[in-house]
Structures are given as structure tokens and as C-alpha cells.
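Re-run with default settings, no changes from the original entry. Doing this only to confirm the output is reproducible before filing.
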Amino acid sequence: MAEFSESYSNAFPAESVEACRGDYRRLPYDPQREYFAFIDPASLSLSATAKFNDEMTLAIGHIEGETIVIDLVEAWSAEVDGQRVTPDDAIAEIIQICKQYKVRDIQADKFGAGWIEHKLSEFRFVPCPLIKSDLYLGLLESINNGKIKLPNDPVPIAQMKLLERRRGRYGKDRIDTDKHDDRCNVCAGVAFMAKEKMKNTSKPLSLADVQPLGQPRRFREEIENNTRIAYKYSAFGGRGTIKDFGR
């Protein structure tokens, strides 16, 4: 029987990542921008057996033309200067930062999103529909095309450079790592959200998208029902989409 082995390579070319590095650690709030956020939840366990003792992380971003801008990346660990930090402490600070940037849309890693969803009820929150590997494949495209701007923060930059691209049994690539990747994960999440927003705003509404009020009720109900279904299976609704007419 033939043996199978995966091939490994660095997923993100270091020079491409560096080319996307900005000259800032955190951009100030600009009232002319629309901001959105991605969270990677974590248990913030102090247990020595907890995997990696992962950080809880947050990234906030916006869009400038065709460029995705990551305004900030923040992280919370289980202990800071000898003081215990709980998940509730971290979420409370995350909420305050999101309010400072007037964030409306938030997504989170779907495997950890359940326990924070009720805490984010004042935002438009949905779990991310993609797995981490697919988020990284999307981020790789943005970095290779120079369509993303990253904070001058050495930690997420270093994490990106350590990601590995693996070709599996059926030729499908995946990107992952056995090291910390919490901070670059939220960057990838914001990049995904930005691309979805750009898709939703790229097609203007036509008259055919809106049913005139004079039409029979059954036609209006059909459009409203289809709109709700489309919104349910989308990552989130964007400004200027037909879902605005189905609320």
C-alpha cells in the first residue's frame, strides 16, 4: 500500500506580509468610516493543560476604496501583571472598544461564538460561516494582492509568517498551525467581513428589485419571504442590499 504524506510550506510570503504593514499600531476613530469587528473567543484558562492558553482577541477594520484596513488588533490573556482576567472582563472591554468605533456588525469564530452571543445583543452579531483555514486562504489572497493594510504590530505579523499551507489527500489546500494564531485569525475574519460588504455594495438596486406598492399583495409577500430567506443564509446584510426593503 502506498504511503501518503502531506506537503508543507509557509503559507504567507514574508515579503508580502511586510509590504502590507502600516506605520501605526492603532488608528483613531473616523466618523466618516463604517467599522466592523471580529472576535476570537477563548476560555482564558490558567490550567497548565489548556491548549496554548489562547488569548481572546479582537480586530476592527474598515474599507477604503478597494483596500481593507485593519485599524487595531487587541488581545486579552488569562493573567496580566499578576491580575486574573476572566472572559467576562475581556468581553466587557471588547464591547467598550467597539462602542468607541461605533461598530455595528460583529462576527466571531463559530466554534466559540455561542457563549458570547447574548453579551453582544446590542450589535448585529452572527457567527462566522467559514472555518479558520478558509479565512486564511482569503487573507492570503488580500495580502498577495496588496489589498490589505495591517497595523505595525509584531505579534500578528509574526503569527502570519508561521502559518503553514498543507496540501491534503485530495489536493485541497488548507492553512493552519500548531502555534498561537489568535491575533492573525481576527485579521483574517475582518478581511472576510470586508469582502462580503464590498460584494453587497457593488451591485446597485434596480427598479426590478423593488415591488411597486400597487401590485397585488401576494407578489409583495413573495418578495418579502424570499428576502428573509436570502438574509438568513448570507453572512450578514450590507448597506444598499434588497434586505433593507424586507425588514
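The two ends are 59 Å apart (CA to CA). Residues 1-5, 205-221, 227-234, 236-247 have pLDDT under 50 and may be disordered.
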